[in-house]
Amino acid sequence: MKKSENTEHKKVEDILRKKRHLNELLLDNLPHLAMITNKERIVLVANRLAIEAGAKIGGYCWRDFGGSLFIPEQDKQYVNDHHKAPPGSTCCHFCLADEALAKEQPKRNRDVRAWGKIWDTYWIPLDEEMFLHYAIDVTEQRQGLAKLEASEKRFKDLVEITTDWVWEVDKDGVYTYSSPKVRDLLGYEPEEIIGKTPFDLMPQEEAEGIDQFFKEKSAKNAPFYRLENTNRHKDGHLVVLETSGILIFDENGQPKGYRGIDRDITERKQSEERLRKAHDELEQRVRERTADLSATLDALRESEERYRQLVELSPDGIGVISGESIVFINSAGVRLLGGVGPGDFVGKSIMDFVHCDNRRRVQSQLRDLHKKQKALPMTEEQFLRMDGTAIDVNVVVMPISLRDTPAIQIVFRDIADRRQAERRVLNYQKQLQLLAMELTLAEERQRRRIADGLHGQVGPLLAASKIKLSSLVKPGSSTDTDNCLEAIHKLLSQAIEYTRTLTFELSPPMLYTLGFEAALEWLAEQSYAQHGIRCSFESDQEPKPMAQEVEILLFQMVRELLNNVGKHAAAHFAGITVEKVDNNIRIVVKDDGVGFDPGEVRYDSVSTSGYGLFSIRERLNYVGGHLEICSGQGRGTQVTLEVPLKR
């Protein structure tokens, strides 16, 4: 009998050992903290994770697991003394096993925080004696859920405050969500929209067209943008909306509908219609302005990039300074200041490039600009290049914001060319003034020469003739009449010849009687008599119609050029050529004299050299002509006058 009882006891122990071994295998395969306890909550089996957390086989789970971390401080002494929870409490807050034991039902305790993590704990009866106790780490799940809830809250807040109506529809087009903005757009409460379709809110003809459009987009799983559609407000009036929608997907990645926004564009459409009706006659202009507006909007979208390109391509130097340090300079600024790249300037003080005479004033102006935040008017300054040379610049300075920090933008332009042009204008004005004075003096000299000629030549001849005549008419005179008359005849002939010469010099009659080219030929003949220089004359004999004042002007210029040849050229031969080129008359006066360097004749200087040529050039410019000079030391001179002919 005793042997039979021992055998039976061994069998029970083997069964229990195998059962414990099986439980240990099962627990070790669980990825969570897991233990099996009895009713007294003594740990019978525990997996590796539970043992690492403090569980001991044969020990109390509430005492050893977590080192009594989850027993309330005020209850610890009672639990240690009585091995149970105080009345109305629990001895462990980790899994709330007391409640499970009391009700003999599974118990779940959510969101237990331990060891810096979040756990869901479970206490599950396995039979009348054993209980499975395990804990699942839900930290990442809870954190992800918190992020999702925060994201959904941000989305909801954004939807609540946006001026557009946000909605969602399923794949059949039925509204499943509507933001409160629908109340402002269409007069419906969000709850009234749920279950309807967009087509229920439209006039019939509009609904048919939009329905077909929606089906096509839905069949292709395609988004749609800025679809204009007409809807009926709850009170009956029509509202024009602009609709855009994108696909939304279920947890399996399959399209389940659309999410989108509607924007009320009724006023815009009404304004467009009013403008169209009111300005039909300006339709083309409206089109152009609309295109301009579109271009402007596109430009605004790319304003930062365009601004950067404009700054880089600007012919003006543009720099930005913070405090007194240069933080940016464009290519033109680098070039104007003689640098190789922006690195030559960035980080340096702007005062390094301001002329030393102006630095205190410029520093004071920059301080005032920082205080007043008001642009300074354009001023002229002197900047210093990298090599130390000074350049004159126009400068505009204005306050800007650079990354939320006050800064200053400087735009500067090299005005050396302008200064040079101004000097040329001033010199030109002085030259004209001197020319006017020279012309006045020349006129006075001509008058004096005429007066001297009349007084010194014609006057004495006429006086002598008068004396001779007086001797003839005096009674009792013994004067030889024939000889006296002969003498008077010679005196009058000399007076007439001198008067004719003077007349030819002042205004040759053949210029008005025989014509322009005959007058030039006469000038060529006179050249030998006056200066001892043989002068040829050639003409292509083509008709050259000109206004009389142009003929007089050209005649005077040729005469002045021949006088210059006689006075300065030391020439033996000169020539005049007249020809028609296109619709211009071209006159060439050349000589074989000593020549000169045309580059030394300064038309824009204030010197007295080159006045004859300066005067000729100015008079030619007045009638639309131009002057060309070809000369060199020892190579003679060729002067070409070209003037347009009458058409």
Shape: elongated
Largest sheet: 5 strands, antiparallel
- CATH homologous group name of the largest domain: PAS domain
Q: What is the CATH fold-level name of the largest domain?
A: Beta-Lactamase
List low-confidence stretches.
603-611
Q: What does it look like?
A:
- The chain is of the alpha+beta class and 647 residues long.
- It folds into five domains: 2-141, PAS domain (Beta-Lactamase, 2-Layer Sandwich), CATH 3.30.450; 162-272, PAS domain (Beta-Lactamase, 2-Layer Sandwich), CATH 3.30.450; 307-414, PAS domain (Beta-Lactamase, 2-Layer Sandwich), CATH 3.30.450.20; 439-506; 508-644, 2-Layer Sandwich (Heat Shock Protein 90), CATH 3.30.565.
- The protein is 46% helix and 24% strand.
- It is elongated and about 200 Å long.
- It starts with a helix and ends with a strand.
